[in-house]
Structures are given as structure tokens and as C-alpha cells.
Design brief:
Helix 1 runs antiparallel to helix 3 (151-183). It is built from three helices and eight strands, in the order H-E-E-E-E-H-E-E-E-E-H. 27% of the residues lie in helices and 35% in strands. With 192 residues, the chain is an alpha+beta fold. Strand 7 and strand 8 (135-145) form a beta hairpin.
Length: 192
């Protein structure tokens, strides 16, 4: 029983864990550098957008950690009258503000990243500026941003954890009671 509970807790924790990267949304090759751009959440949704960059030398594919990267997200088209509420740590940054990508953002120190405020669904452009030595270039990657998830669909694994634990405890109590009943010696009642 303890093993089952441990497995369930590990599964719940792995579903909630966040990893560097996300999905690949673009790759830029210019001035002897290859920049691969990742974004999370998957699919890309309105809210804080986690953008991560992997910079490599061409043709050796060796990772480059000394490149300076800055990025911004820009909405194409008119703004929505109902923008998404962003968390306080992200809402102080106006959309379109150029944000430096840092290695401190990622657990994998070969990557650098930043959080960008994406306030609504629709078509956006991700503007990227890369500088390393004499190489200095900009590029734009188009993004199709989906509507944000509802709070219930975001937090359902955590919400479901408590009822699942209660259900497992009740199931365990039932099995223990059955085992005790099966182990009791039965008195043979034979009457005259």
C-alpha cells in the first residue's frame, strides 16, 4: 500500500514539474550561430510566456554560453478589451518591453531564458536580438497564442490530490477490515 501511495505521489509531482525548454517554436541560423527558441506552456497560451534559447556554433554544434540575448513579444492587431490578468511578478512589464535572457532563468546552464508578458490570445511576434562578438542580429518568430487555461484546468492535479488520498485511505481501511474478518477463527456452533 505504501508503494502505491509513493507511486501516485511521484506521478502527481512529475505532472506538476516544470522543465527548461518547452516546444521548439523556431530556429535561426545567422553569422555562424544557430539559435533554437523554445516556449512554454505547451501550447503557447496567454499569460507569462517562458521563452528559452539554446545558442550553438555552426558547424560544430558546440553550445555558446557567452551570447547576449534580448527578446520581446509584440501583439499584431488591435488590443483586446479584456486582457489576461498576469501574476504580479510579470504584470509590471509592459508587452513589447525588451527583456534580457539570462542563464539564471534556466536550470540547464546551457540555456538562457526570460518570461515575457503575453496579455491575450491571437497573433504575436517574438522579437529576438542576439549579440556575440562581431555577430549581432535580430530576428522575428511569429507566434499563435491560444486563450489562457481556466484556473480549474490549471490546478486540477493539486485539487484532485486530496480526494485521491482520502479515497486511498478509505480503500486501505476496507482492505484491513476484510483481512481481520478473514483471520478471525470461526466458532463451530453445533447444537444438540
Amino acid at each position: 500500500m505504501r508503494r502505491l501511495l509513493t507511486i501516485l505521489l511521484l506521478l502527481a509531482a512529475s505532472a506538476l514539474g516544470h522543465a527548461d525548454g518547452g516546444i521548439t517554436i523556431g530556429q535561426i541560423e545567422r553569422d555562424g550561430l544557430r539559435v533554437t527558441v523554445f516556449a512554454a506552456p505547451v501550447p503557447v497560451r496567454a499569460g507569462p510566456l517562458d521563452v528559452t534559447f539554446l545558442v550553438q556554433e555552426i558547424p560544430s554544434n558546440q553550445p555558446v554560453t557567452d551570447a547576449r540575448i534580448a527578446c520581446s513579444a509584440r501583439k499584431l492587431g488591435p488590443p483586446s478589451p479584456n486582457p489576461v490578468r498576469l501574476p504580479a511578478w510579470c504584470s509590471t512589464i509592459a508587452p513589447g518591453t525588451r527583456i534580457p535572457a539570462t542563464a539564471a532563468h534556466s536550470r540547464n546552464k546551457l540555456l538562457s531564458g526570460a518570461y515575457l508578458p503575453v496579455t491575450e490570445a491571437g497573433r504575436w511576434d517574438l522579437d529576438i536580438q542576439v549579440a556575440r562578438g562581431p555577430a549581432n542580429f535580430s530576428s522575428v518568430i511569429p507566434l499563435e497564442v491560444a486563450a489562457p487555461q481556466t484556473p480549474l484546468s490549471t490546478w486540477w492535479p493539486l485539487i484532485a490530490l486530496v480526494p485521491a488520498a482520502i479515497l486511498l485511505y478509505v480503500w486501505r481501511a476496507f482492505l484491513v477490515a476484510q483481512e481481520r474478518t478473514a483471520q478471525k477463527p470461526r466458532r463451530d456452533v453445533t447444537g444438540p
